[in-house]
């Protein structure tokens, strides 16, 4: 598509060149040369033309023709009235394009471009949020403990993940998440419970680096989501709501890929792959392409990809969606084992049963806000014998 558009622009430019001023034609040509395809194609075309002219002049015996047509022109000249086919400006633009696009790639790769766009968006949507007139006392106490953890003299060594005032605005009128603060200790499973649209997935996307928060941040151990982004992300495993699986690879190949990305020593990779495939019941599917997996098996594979390498913090976004009851129970047993080994787990779910089976603490989110927080038993005692999520 891009070459076709470029061809159309070039054709239009040369068609109207007699109808507009030469300076405008030159400006359009320079703009088009920011595309390396145009610069390279034009250079090849002009080089071919000059080569043909020079070859013809060498073979021509007509002195009058050679006097008028065979001028002493160089390839490495700028375009001029005497030589409209000089290559120098095209070669210079090719070098400039290389520097320009390499610079853009580096800016994007190291996150500078994303941060710049995020800053501009924050200036547009603003950082003002409506304050809650009434706030649950447990939510307020949790936020106070998070605030206290910023003190360098804090002695709480068990906390692995600290979420500090996380908020996200997508427009001036739409607030997806507001004022989310909580802590997760080693060996703890923390649940985010709520209906679709409550802000669970947006919170996860911020905690896993897929979205930049409008305000607030998070810390894993001593690494900050904003200031130490790459080191922070190296500490997490993530099972997204929609499977991040390459359909042309087999399940074993996907796990091998993630094991290498995690930096697991080569001598241990096969053992890790065999272990997670066995634990999650994927033995008979390990050599099958992921595109042919059922929805439940894709969720199990995504969970294995998040857990392989034993990252300190694991984010699981509705990990058992589409999984049959027997496999769900098995997955719960695997996650309970991970908790006992000291991993911190944060999961989202629609299922109160799942939260009761796994979570040591949970929060219920409504319209992007934490409405309550505590253990399953504590919330039952405080709010009644059951839950009604509207």
From TrEMBL:
Transmembrane segments: 32-52, 90-112
GO molecular function, one term: ATP binding
Pfam families, A to Z: ABC_tran
Record keywords: ATP-binding, Membrane, Nucleotide-binding, Transmembrane, Transmembrane helix
Ranges where the ABC transporter domain occurs: 161-390
GO cellular component: membrane
SMART domains cross-referenced by the UniProt entry: AAA
InterPro entries hit by this protein: AAA+_ATPase (IPR003593), ABC_transporter-like_ATP-bd (IPR003439), ABCA (IPR026082), P-loop_NTPase (IPR027417)
Parts forming coiled coils: none
Name used for this protein in its record: ABC transporter domain-containing protein
Protein source organism: Homalodisca liturata
Lineage, top ranks: Eukaryota, Metazoa, Ecdysozoa, Arthropoda, Hexapoda
């Amino acid at each position: 598509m891009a070459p076709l558009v470029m061809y159309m622009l070039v054709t239009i430019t040369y068609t109207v060149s007699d109808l507009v001023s030469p300076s405008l034609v030159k400006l359009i040509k320079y703009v088009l040369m920011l595309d390396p395809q145009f610069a390279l194609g034009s250079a090849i075309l002009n080089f071919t033309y000059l080569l043909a002219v020079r070859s013809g002049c060498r073979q021509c015996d007509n002195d009058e023709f050679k006097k008028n047509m065979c001028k002493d022109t160089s390839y490495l000249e700028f375009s001029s009235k005497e030589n409209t086919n000089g290559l120098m400006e095209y070669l210079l633009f090719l070098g400039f394009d290389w520097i320009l696009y390499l610079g853009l790639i580096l800016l994007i790769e190291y996150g500078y471009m994303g941060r710049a766009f995020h800053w501009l968006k924050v200036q547009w949507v603003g950082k003002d949020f409506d304050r809650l007139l009434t706030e649950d006392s447990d939510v307020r106490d949790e936020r106070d403990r998070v605030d206290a953890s910023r003190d360098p003299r804090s002695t709480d060594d068990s906390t692995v993940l600290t979420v500090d005032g996380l908020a996200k605005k997508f427009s001036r009128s739409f607030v997806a998440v507001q004022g989310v603060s909580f802590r997760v200790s080693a060996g703890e499973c923390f649940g985010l419970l709520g209906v679709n649209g409550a802000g669970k997935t947006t919170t996860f996307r911020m905690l896993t680096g897929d979205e930049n928060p409008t305000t607030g941040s998070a810390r894993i151990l001593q690494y900050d989501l904003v200031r130490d982004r790459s080191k922070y992300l190296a500490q997490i495993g993530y099972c997204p709501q929609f499977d991040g699986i390459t359909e042309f690879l087999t399940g074993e190949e996907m796990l091998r890929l993630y094991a290498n990305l995690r930096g697991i020593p080569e001598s241990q990779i096969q053992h890790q792959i065999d272990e997670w495939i066995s634990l999650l019941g994927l033995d008979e599917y390990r050599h099958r392409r992921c595109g042919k997996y059922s929805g439940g098996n894709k969720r199990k594979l995504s969970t294995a990809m998040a857990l392989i390498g034993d990252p300190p913090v694991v984010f699981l976004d509705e990990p058992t969606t589409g999984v049959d009851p027997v496999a769900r129970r098995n997955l719960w047993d695997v996650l309970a084992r991970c908790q006992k080994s000291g991993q911190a787990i944060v999961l989202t779910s629609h299922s109160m049963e799942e939260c009761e089976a796994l979570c040591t603490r949970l929060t219920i989110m409504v319209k992007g806000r934490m409405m309550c927080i505590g253990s399953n038993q504590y919330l039952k005692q405080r709010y009644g014998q059951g839950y009604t999520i509207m």
